[in-house]
Amino acid sequence: MPGRHGKQVKKKNRSKRQPVTEMETTLKDSIHGRTRKERSILSGLIPPAVKHFSKKITISTTLPMFQQAPVPKAAAVQQPTPAPEQKTQPKKNKK
């Protein structure tokens, strides 16, 4: 990368603009509907939200939803036949 070849370095001028005050930012935020400043102010004053805890419930197995439904007599007579079991041949070991 080439150098400066003897040229003088000029200092950058600083901006003469005044820094924005807190009142101006709050005013701008309220105009545009932003709640940034209000949140930062109120965050220390408002206590944290209360978390509601629910009680643990034990489920009884005697409830009707855990009981087997009664089978009607017509369905009890017509029982499906079980499928025949297939015999599998033992695998041969390769040596």
TrEMBL record:
UniProt feature, compositional bias: Basic residues: 1-17
Low complexity bias spans: 70-86
Residue segments, region Disordered: 1-40, 70-95
Protein name: Uncharacterized protein
Lineage: Eukaryota, Discoba, Euglenozoa, Kinetoplastea, Metakinetoplastina
